[in-house]
Amino acid sequence: MSNKTIFCIGAGYVGGPTMAMIAHKCPDYKVIVGDIDDARIQAWQSGQPPIYEPGLAELTRSSIGRNLFFTTDIAKGIRDADIIFVCINTPTKSFGMGAGRASDLQYWEKTAREILEHATTDKIVVEKSTLPVRTAEAMERILRSRGGKVRFEVLSNPEFLAEGTAVHDLEMPDRVLIGGHETEQGQAAVRELAKIYSRWIPQERILTTNVWSSELSKLAANAFLAQRISSINSLSALCEETEADINEIARAIGMDQRIGAKFLKAGVGFGGSCFKKDILNMVYLCEFYGLQEVADYWAHVVEINDYQVDRFVRNLLVHLFNTVADKRIAVLGFAFKADTGDTRESPAIRVCRKLVEERARLVISDPQALENARRDLADVADRIEFEPDPYVATQDAHAIALLTDWAEYRHLDYERIFKGMVQPAFVFDGRNLLDHHKLYEIGFNVYPTGKAPMSHL
Ligand SMILES: NC(=O)c1ccc[n+]([C@@H]2O[C@H](COP(=O)([O-])OP(=O)(O)OC[C@H]3O[C@@H](n4cnc5c(N)ncnc54)[C@H](O)[C@@H]3O)[C@@H](O)[C@H]2O)c1
What is the best residue among 21, 32, 35, 165 to mutate for testing ligand 1's pocket, by most ligand atoms within 8 Å of CB? Predict the structure, then answer.
């Protein structure tokens, strides 16, 4: 039995699910999640999480009111806690030095000061947000600035969950990483945190490192994942020129055990709140330390991603006879990937903006992300329809642009859709999700990613 209290600051995509899992697995810990966003807290508290994630509502409800609570009272949360997780957002800086690349640490610093202000007993502070290397050190300096009696031990414990599979990833993570200081207190804090995870995660998957390695490992993991996507996407452009097939290439290289099969799916590019932000953050760090070549190397991963999105739009434009002005284009999928309503940095945003610039009449459909889509495109929303039903969305459209790999799009009645569309009808499959041969037989002109087009024209 522990009788310890955990407080988590930030009830977003990371804080909410992570705490729901800890509360579920550790019923003897009291887990309280705090956020400044009242609407978010109310949604969590009602058992209807404010984010869509398979299995999350059930997981949350299993502990809510028992040992899982949500609050906007941050001060009390801090006071009562033994362990504080910080899961706030860490956006890219939009102003001043490092604008567009460095991490904006103002919210992080404010949180550190808040912890300092309200803490009256010793705390373990767990940095779960993704942060630049040596942020924990800055946090420690703030927490120790008053020289009071309260001791703070800062740990780095980055989160590796992926949206869409968060519950599964939290339940069976490849590894949990805990970075702590090599002092006696530091190691005691590491053990305290490891004790929580060891309730359901095998010991050999709980890695402990020094704080800086842990912080950099998270940036490095995202950079490597994004790099694989940009690598396969760069080759998809070459495939379209040479009639090689990117799926066949992915299969052939993926069977090499040194390479592995995962994250080799070509598409319209990666999105999500993390990849771009974390790589740019690493680029900034490299520049800061005078490592320009290393910075340039990683910056290209992001550039290829933008290139891939632009290439998608260019392809669409060229094949629709060089104009989409006044043509109805049905965008299927707006979330940055399937099984989430999250649209942060979704390639769909850039695609839709460019198509609006070309004066297309857009109709966007998505099973979970329409509300976010409306918000992301608020300034041009008067020129866009938002339609949950894909059959209505595709009615009278000249082309379909498939941008999210929702499984349900694979099973639509494309004969029916084809009949409702303006002829010649086009499909641009930005996720290589659909059965291209079947679509071609129905009569569509089909433009996959990284494969030869199948055109009747
Ligand atoms: N989303 C992911 O898949 C993912 C995965 C791994 C790591 N991360 C990292 O985790 C961190 C959080 O990401 P997220 O996607 O959960 O962000 P999010 O925007 O969904 O959630 C952050 C929450 O923190 C709250 N918040 C901000 N400042 C606060 C304050 N001072 N006091 C109380 N609440 C405050 C916000 O209101 C928001 O609800 C980021 O650093 C991100 O890079 C995200």
Answer: 35
8, 274, 286, 352: the catalytic one is 274
Q: How far is CA 198 from CA 66, 191, 193, 271, 349, in A?
A: 21, 10, 9, 32, 40
pLDDT at residue 132, rounded to an integer: 87
Residue nearest to atom 18 of ligand 1 (CA): 12
Tokens of 264: 């080799």
Atom 4, ligand 1: residue with shortest CA distance: 14
Distance between CA atoms of residues 78 and 118, nearest Å: 6
Using one digit for the tens of pLDDT, what is the confidence trace for 263-283? 999 999 999 999 999 999 999
Which ligand 1 atom minimizes the distance to the CA of 158? 7
Beta-carbon contacts of 351 under 8 Å, excluding residues fewer than 6 positions away, are 268, 309, 312, 313, 331, 401, 403, 430
Position 1 scores a pLDDT of: 74
Question: What does the pLDDT read at residue 170?
Answer: 98
- Residue 5: phi, psi to the nearest 5? -115, 130
In the β-sheet with 123-127, what is the strand arrangement from edge to edge?
A: 68-71, 30-34, 5-9, 83-86, 123-127, 152-156, 176-179, 206-209
Contact (Cβ atoms closer than 8 angstroms) between residue 129 and residue 87: yes
DSSP state letters, 270-302: --SSSHHHHHHHHHHHHHHTT-HHHHHHHHHHH
Q: What whole-number distance in Å separates Cα of residue 6 and Cα of residue 1?
A: 14
Do 426 and 402 form a contact (C-beta atoms < 8 A)?
Answer: no
Return all residues near 362 (Cβ < 8 A) that are at least 6 apart.
Answer: 328, 329, 331, 352, 355, 356, 383, 384, 385
DSSP-derived 3-state class of residue 128? coil
169 lines ligand 1 (CB under 6 A): no
The low-confidence residues of the chain, meaning pLDDT below 70, are none
Angle formed by the axes of helices 211-242 and 246-254, nearest 10°? 140
Domains of the chain: 5-209 (3.40.50.720), 210-457 (3.40.50.720)
φ, ψ for residue 394 (rounded to 5)?
Answer: -85, -10
Residue with tokens 């702590």: 180
Residue-level pLDDT at 409: 98
Q: Which two tokens stand for residue 59?
A: 């997981």
| CB-count exposure of residue 141 (10 Å: 0-12, 13-18, 19+) | exposed
| 274 carries an active-site annotation | yes
